[in-house]
Structures are given as structure tokens and as C-alpha cells.
Amino acid sequence: MTLEILPVRTAGAAENMASDFVLLRRYPRPAVARFRHYGWRAPAFTFGYSQRVAFVREQLASAAAGEVRPPELCRRPTGGGVVDHRDDWTYALVIPRGHALEEQRASESYWVVHEALATVLRAQGVPAVTKPAADPGAEEDGPAGVCFQRAEVHDVVHAVTGAKIAGAAQKRSRDGLLFQGSVWRPAAGDSLPWEEFADLFPTALATTLGAEATPTPWPDFPEGELEALTEQYSNPEWNEFR
User: Fold this and answer.
1) What is the Cα Rg of the chain in Å?
2) CATH classification of the domain holding 219
3) Is the pLDDT score of 143 beyond 60?
4) Is 14 exposed, middle or buried (0-12, 13-18, 19+ CB in 10 A)?
5) pLDDT digit string, tens, across residues 5-54
6) Residue 225: in which H helix or E strand, if any?
7) pTM, 2 dp
8) Which domain holds residue 24?
9) How many degrees, rounded to 5, is the angle at CA 222 between CA 50 and CA 213?
């Protein structure tokens, strides 16, 4: 199996979400997984497919109070909560249908990817662990549905401070599994060598998947497909349907 490492791209929120979904929908070969790290052209928040936009706007009212212009806001194709992308390290992993990770339960695939991420962070000196199941009656910090204010089971957390370092959301379809993940830089530490992390993390994922990490040019998609999907993700009907 091959894990294609795609070039880093920077785009707006709608285009980033569209690109991830097109990568899920289009495969050159069944035995190929894809990984990409990407940036944000402007301050942005994304939120889960099933979340209510009224709740999201309520959270953004305080979170984005200092911004000169309102941040971009886009509903993801995956689940999960509200994610602040203003100071995160964002990635997407696409697993083809039939691979063992794609066939596992969502909680298991979530744990596998985050264990690889936590292992890389520990190798770089960050005491990162995946969060175990909560003790009955334990208090949770932050509201449910807001990514970096509250850690869920199998999120990556700081072993000393308990701060959430990384979270993710998933979508399964007839084509495979899309895993959209975010690493919160302040929680991982300002001194973390991010360029090194960008090399180590996909390599660790390739080992986990039993694949060979291979730098690969951006794939060619059918003409107009990405543009049409970007327009859909920009449309108020998409972002406000719940």
C-alpha cells in the first residue's frame, strides 16, 4: 500500500473543505491512501456536519471578538465540533474502502491515528497521550461541541496540564474514510519544531497503515469538480441548513 503525501496548499475555508471531500471521492488506485497538511488564507472556523449553526455562531461571538473582520465559517463534511483554525496545524487523511482502518469502528480508527500523532509528539519532547475513557462523574472542561475547549475520549492531550492538543472528525462513505484533524499549536508548545513534525507525522501514519510514504504531486480531478464543490461549501444553504 502507498500513502501519498500531497503538497501543502493554502486556501479559503470552503476550498479546503471541498478539496478534502474530492480527495475522498476520487482515487487513482484502491491501494492508495492520501495525506495532506494545509493552511488557511484567512482566519477561519469550521464546524461539524450535524451541528446547528445557531450554536456555532453563539460560540464565535466571544471567540472571534478581537478580529477586525469576521472569520470565515464553513460546515465540514465530517462530524465533530467547532474548530478554531487561527493557530492550528491542519491535516486530512483519506483511507480507501477495504483497508483495515477503514473497516474499524469510528472510535478505533480515531484512536489509531491519534496514537501515531501522540507518539510523534512524545519523540519531540511533548508529554502527549490519548485521553482514556472518562471516569464516571468526572467533570469536563468547556462546552460539548467546541473542539479545543473540551477533550473527548481518544483526543490527544497534554499528560501534565490536561490541555487538549489534537482532535479530529471522520466521514465514511462508499469510497472510504475521510479523517480531518487539527493540532492546536499553543497546547503542543511554542518551541515544537513544526517542520520536523510535518515530516515525522505522515511517516508514522504510513507505518501504522502498513504503507510506504511517497511524496506525490497534486492529483488531477475532472474539470470544474473542485470549483463546483467549493461553491457549494460557500453557499449559505450549505452552512445554515441546520
Assistant:
1) 17
2) 3.30.930.10
3) no
4) buried
5) 999 999 999 999 999 999 998 866 678 999 999 999 999 999 999 999 99
6) helix 225-234
7) 0.91
8) 2-105+167-239
9) 75
